[in-house]
Amino acid sequence: MKENTKKANCQMPRTSDINKQIKDERKQSILSAALPLFALYGNKVSVDMICEKAKCSHGLLYHYFRDSDNVLFNIKKSESFVDLKNKLLQTTDNGSPLDEIYQILQHVNSSICKAKNSDFALLYLILNDEEKLGFKTTLINLIKNGQKLNQIAAGKAEDLASIYIEQNNGVLLKKLLQKSYKIETVPVDNLMQIFIKKTVR
After folding, report:
1. At the N or C end, where does the chain have fewer CB atoms within 10 A?
2. Which domain holds residue 54?
3. DSSP SS3 for 152
4. Which residues contact 47 (CB under 8 A, 6 or more apart)?
5. Is the pLDDT of residue 11 over 90?
6. CATH code assigned at 178
């Protein structure tokens, strides 16, 4: 009995820093578990699905988030997502449209590879229609300008942009469905073959 009392007295109370760290880790574990669900099922993700994947109670989830939409909102506030979204819309206005496309593709690949953990590479898949449209519009305009300069392959600019976007979606979805923790992006030089005009010899 005395020994148990001594043990109880020896336990130091948690500091506010430790409590904050525990809360942050719990919150992050829910976000990390929810991300692949949103990447795969979009707005059909429910609180039940997130709790099952995160192995947490509804009470714990509701302690940090109002609902599943709020979970997604918090994912999209992450540094990794904001960085990826900015990179998708970033152009430098330096060089030709072909150079600009090359730089955008490099930005996307680098954002995916540098994400803080492998799951966050799937952030690309949770871009909403408006975010995807902004990215696609940027690509389409560059493709059209490149076609005028005879640098970029003929064809509908919308179709060429869609081929690239769907290819990226396919790579990431494949990794998600295979539950692979390593995201291998296609080399930018290979991706550029979608856009570069082939010269006939």
Report:
1. C
2. 11-76
3. strand
4. 58, 61, 62, 67, 68
5. no
6. 1.10.357
